[in-house]
Fold these 3 entries.
Entry 1:
Amino acid sequence: AQKITQTQPGMFVQEKEAVTLDCTYDTSDQSYGLFWYKQPSSGEMIFLIYQGSYDEQNATEGRYSLNFQKARKSANLVISASQLGDSAMYFCAMSRETSGSRLTFGEGTQLTVNP
Amino acid sequence: GAGVSQSPRYKVAKRGQDVALRCDPISGHVSLFWYQQALGQGPEFLTYFQNEAQLDKSGLPSDRFFAERPEGSVSTLKIQRTQQEDSAVYLCASSLSLWSVPYEQYFGPGTRLTVT
C-alpha cells in the first residue's frame, strides 16, 4: 500500500519569498510517480509538477520545483517568489509505476501568502 | 480546449434517494478516474476506466456505488439509497492514458453532494 504524509496543516509566507511544503511517502514499489496539485477555494485540482522515481534530476516547472530525496522518501515542493494567487490547498500524491495510474493523496497543506 | 466538466455542481439529496453524477472528460482522453473528497481531506480513489472498461473499482465504499462509461467517453457515478456519510465532493479526472506522457490527471470542478 502507498501512503503520503503532509505534516504541515497550514503554512504562511510573505509575498515574493520562497516556501517549502513537506511531503514524505511510503511504498514498497520500486517505481512510482510523485505529483503535486493545487486546489484553490474554487475546488478544482490543478496539476503543478511530476517526478518519476527513476528521474535523477529534480523536476522544475516555472516557479515550482520538486526536491526529491529518494533515500529519505521525501518529495518537497518549493515555490519561489510567492504570489498572492498561490494561496490555496496543496496536495502531494503518488501513483504506482511511473505512470498515470490512480493517485494516493496526502491530507494537504493550506498555504497563505501575506502581502 | 474544453476541460473536464461535471454536473450537477451541487446536489442535495434526502437520505435514501438515488443520485447520478455526470462527468465529461477531455476529448480523446482514454483514462477516467473518480475520487471522493471529504471535507478537509485529500481525495480518495473510487474507480478507474480505460475506455469503456472499468479496470479498478476497489475504492468504491459499498455496493450502493456504481459507475459506468458505456461508450468510452462520458461517465456516470450512481449512488443508490444515499446515506449521510456519502456527503462529499466527487471529483472526476481524465488523462491521455496510463502509459503516455504527460501522466498528469486533469480534474473537473467536482460535484458537491449533501445528504440530509
Entry 2:
Amino acid sequence: ETGVTQTPRHLVMGMTNKKSLKCEQHLGHNAMYWYKQSAKKPLELMFVYSLEERVENNSVPSRFSPECPNSSHLFLHLHTLQPEDSALYLCASSLHNTGELFFGEGSRLTVL
Amino acid sequence: AQSVTQPDIHITVSEGASLELRCNYSYGATPYLFWYVQSPGQGLQLLLKYFSGDTLVQGIKGFEAEFKRSQSSFNLRKPSVHWSDAAEYFCAVGISGNTPLVFGKGTRLSVIA
C-alpha cells in the first residue's frame, strides 16, 4: 500500500471539460509535488508546494491550476486542456529537508 | 545547475545475467543520489539512495549502487536479473533537501528468457 494516493487513476476528458486530480499523502510530509510524464519525454516538474505554499511553478500553462489546502492534500484543477496534455500525472511528497520523494501511482489523463 | 545523464535509453539482458545501469551527474559538490524504478502504468518506487558514508549502497530487490566521486557516477547493479525486473529505471540527483530532485531521462530494461 502506497503512502501517497492519487485519484482518479484514469480520466478521459474533452477539451471543454473541467476536472480535478486529487492527491493525498499519509506520511506526515510537508512538501508535495506534481510531475507530468509524457511518452518518450523526461519527467517534468510542474508545481512544488512546501508547507502549503507554492514554491515552484515551472512555466506551466494556466489551464493547469494547483491547490494545496493542507499538507496532506494536493489538487490539480484542469480546464480547457489540449490533446498534448494527455499524460501520466504523478504526485509526490517529501519531508522538507531530505529530498527523497515518495510517489503515488499516477493519474492517466487522456484529452480528446 | 545540476544535471543527470543516463546514457542508455534501452537495455536488454537475459534472465539470470548481471546488470549495470549507468548514471552520471554534473554538480560541483557531492549531491544526494537516488535510483527509482517504474513499472508500466505505475508510479516511481525508490530502490536506493546515497547521502554520505559508504559509497556502496544496498537497496531493495537485490539492487546495489556505487558512488564514484572521481567519475561523477552512481551506477546501479544487480548480479542476477529476474523477469520481474523489466521496468523503467530513473536516476535522480538532489543538491540539498530544499530543492526538487533532477531526474535523468530513464533507462528501459527488457528481460528475455
Entry 3:
Amino acid sequence: AQSVTQLGSHVSVSEGALVLLRCNYSSSVPPYLFWYVQYPNQGLQLLLKYTSAATLVKGINGFEAEFKKSETSFHLTKPSAHMSDAAEYFCAVSDHTGGFKTIFGAGTRLFVKA
Amino acid sequence: EPEVTQTPSHQVTQMGQEVILRCVPISNHLYFYWYRQILGQKVEFLVSFYNNEISEKSEIFDDQFSVERPDGSNFTLKIRSTKLEDSAMYFCASSDGVERKQYFGPGTRLTVT
C-alpha cells in the first residue's frame, strides 16, 4: 500500500530562514506526490505536485520540492520564510488503485518567529 | 479558476440525528471524493465515487454513511445517525483524472452534541 511519512510534527524557523519540511513516501509504482497547505480554519490548498516530469517542482508562494527516487523523498523547501507561511503542511500521495484517492501524511505545523 | 463549493460551512446537530452535507464539484469533473479531518489530526479518506457508483470506501465509511449524486451537479454525504465521534471537518473533492490532481472544497465543520 502507498503511504507518506512526514518527519517532525512541528517545525519552527525564524523569518528569513530556510524552510525544510520532510516527506518520505512508500510506493510500489511511480508515485504522484503532492504538498498541500492548510491555514487555520481553512481548507486545503495545493502548493505543488509531482507527476513524473521534472524532479524539481516549483509551486506557489516560493515553495519547491525535489523528488528523489533513491531516497524515496519529496521534501518541501522555501529559501526564505515569511510570517504568512505559518500553517499546517501535508504531504500526500495519490493511490494508484481504485478511485485514485489521496493519502495524506500526518502533517507538519510550521511556526515562523519574527 | 473553477472551485468546489460546500454547504453549509458549519453544521451543529444532536447525537442520533441525520445530517446531509452538500458539495458542488467542478462541472466537468468525473471523480468525486469525501474526506474528513478530526480536529488536530490528519485528513482521512472516506469514499470515492465515479460513474454513479462508489469506487472505493474506507473502513470509516460504514453503514451509517451514504453518498449520492442526486441531480448531476450536487454530491452529498449523508450520516444517518450521528455520533459524537463524527464531529470533524468534512472535505469534498473532485477531479477530472488528469495527473490525479484533486480540487478540494473549503469544508463543512460538523459538530455533534
